[in-house]
Design brief:
This protein is mainly alpha-helical and 79 residues long. The protein contains 3 helices and no strands. It has helices at residues 3-27, 37-41, 49-77. The longest helix is centred in the last third of the chain and has 29 residues, at 49-77. The radius of gyration is 18 Å and the shape is elongated. The mean pLDDT is 84.
Amino acid sequence: MGLRTFIDLAQLVLAITLIVLVLLQAKGNSASAFFNREAATTYRTRRGVERTILQATIGIAILFCVLSLLNNLLPKLGF
C-alpha cells in the first residue's frame, strides 16, 4: 500500500467522521430557534459532550485540510 493510497483512505475516513460530527452538533440545536427570535439570540456556552464534539470537529477538519494539501503536493514532490 503506497503513501497516496494511505492518504486517500485517511481522507475518506476523516470525511465520514467529519460529517457525523457536524450532524451530531446540529442535532442539539432547537428547531424553534429559526422561528423564535429570543431563542436564536440567547447566548449559551457549550459544556461537556457538546464542547468535546466541537473540539473534535475542529481537530478533524484541520487534519483533513492538511491531508488534502499534502495529497495535492505529493505529485509535485515526486511521490
